[in-house]
Amino acid sequence: MKYWKALTLIALILVYIIATKSLNPKLEIEESIEINAPDEKIWDIISNFGTYPDWNTYIKYIEGDLKPGKSLYVETENMNANHAKYHAIVTKVVENRELSWEGRLLMSGIYDSERSFVITSLSESRSIFTFRGNYTGLLVPLFRALVRKGEASDYKRMNKALKVRAEKLSDQAGQG
């Protein structure tokens, strides 16, 4: 009898894996904002992890080395005050342009995410900042609507907070 339970569970897992492959277990969320500040100023803010608690509405704490292959410890708080803590690996660092890291739930293929901060210079004093999340894995179809709505709102809030901070610091530097 206990073998039937195990076989049933294995069969359900296989059906789920086959179904999710056809449901496209991928999701990308991207939010951009124009900021009246130079790309260097935005980079200074996003690369200074120690100041995140002062301004960041989504990523409340982050620590680690800003070098590809190095580990980060990240704590987030969404707009519903739900907390998440995870370890990630830095995948890309291009000064004044991009910072990316990857995290995963339990093991690769279950629920993986790549987060990227991308800065595009428009002029000496204007930039576009994009916060992008790419999600893949078996659990993505189950959480697609929830993640899409929640993460997009959190990304927008964080982008607005970054805009306020960057423009304030840029104005102060121009007056000083």
Question: If you had to describe this structure to a student in words, what would you say it looks like?
Answer:
With 176 residues, this protein is α+β, with helices and mostly antiparallel strands. The chain has a single domain (26-175), classed as Alpha-D-Glucose-1,6-Bisphosphate, Chain A, domain 4. 39% of the residues lie in helices and 35% in strands. A seven-stranded antiparallel β-sheet has the order 1-7-6-5-4-3-2, with helices on one face. Strand 2 (59-64) and strand 3 form a beta hairpin. Helix 2 (39-46) crosses helix 4.
Element layout with pairings:
Blueprint: H1 2-22, E1 26-35, H2 39-46, H3 52-55, E2 59-64, E3 71-77, E4 83-94, E5 98-104, E6 112-121, E7 127-136, H4 140-175
Antiparallel strand pairs: 1-7, 2-3, 3-4, 4-5, 5-6, 6-7
Strand runs, count = 7
Amino- and carboxy-terminal Cα gap: 78 Å
The value of Rg in angstroms is 19 Å
How many helices? The count is 4
* Spatial order of the strands forming the largest sheet: 1-7-6-5-4-3-2
What percentage of the residues does DSSP assign to strands (E)? Answer: 35-45%
CATH topology annotation: Alpha-D-Glucose-1,6-Bisphosphate, Chain A, domain 4
Give the class-level CATH name. Answer: Alpha Beta
Mean pLDDT: 87
Structural features:
176 residues; alpha+beta; Alpha-D-Glucose-1,6-Bisphosphate, Chain A, domain 4; elongated
In short:
With 176 residues, the protein is of the alpha+beta class.
